[in-house]
Amino acid sequence: MSWLYLASVIGAGFCMGLVDRRWSLFLFRDARRAVTILVAGFVFFLVWDLVALELGVYSRGESPAMTGIEVAPDLPLEELFFIAFLCYVTGVLHGLFDRVLRREQVRR
């Protein structure tokens, strides 16, 4: 059992949080809206994963860097953190692109 992958995802999420905090791109810009979007995205992708697992589209991969803990058949603990990270990164990137595009419009 290894916690390397889970620690990496959590660490990357923490770093993304620092970027978000510094430039107020998503969660630190409008927390209520961001949490709503994060929850909606998390639920969507979790259901997506569960349906895909049930249909046999993909299955749990083996890696020595993973904990081996499953929260459901073929659904590793790390997947929950990865889904949350994916949604957070998407929100931060959207905030970044929105800021850059607005700045460009102001220049014109």
UniProtKB/TrEMBL annotation:
Compartmental location: Membrane
Transmembrane segments: 6-23, 35-60, 80-101
Main location: membrane
GO CC field: membrane
Pathway: Carotenoid biosynthesis
Alphabetized InterPro entries for the sequence: Lycopene_cyclase_dom
Signal sequence range: none
Membrane-protein topology: Multi-pass membrane protein
GO biological process: carotenoid biosynthetic process
Keyword Transmembrane: yes
Keywords associated with the record: Carotenoid biosynthesis, Isomerase, Membrane, Transmembrane, Transmembrane helix
Molecular-function GO terms, alphabetical: intramolecular lyase activity; lycopene beta cyclase activity
Presence of keyword Transmembrane: yes
NCBIfam families for this protein: CarR_dom_SF
Name of protein: Lycopene cyclase domain-containing protein
Organism: Aeromicrobium flavum
Taxonomic classification: Bacteria, Bacillati, Actinomycetota, Actinomycetes, Propionibacteriales
